[in-house]
Amino acid sequence: MLIKKIQQVPAKPVQMEGAENVSVRVIFGPDDGAATFAMRVFELLAAGHTPYHAHPFEHEVLILSGQICLTTEKGPVALDPGDAVMVGANEKHQFKNLSAAQPASFLCLVPVEYQK
Prior knowledge:
mainly beta; 6-stranded antiparallel beta sheet; 0% helix; 50% strand
């Protein structure tokens, strides 16, 4: 069994094209021997966002802090702390921090083979 403090896991900038002012902490992943899931915490600085993208796997997201806009092919959806989302395989999506002054964060679970 592994137990970690989230803030003790180093935050690394997201290096995907289209990402702006966003970092990720891989809480549990391949380096920990995780066989099935990778758990990550994304932190969006003020006005930060992930790229508008899709990938061949589903993932689950739990909003931890801040106000976030989920951009989908059907339009934008406002998300608050405690909201949970399941993004299906190949669904285009983007997470944007709606605040120009405060950070926002979310927990994201993906199949471990897609965590790099």
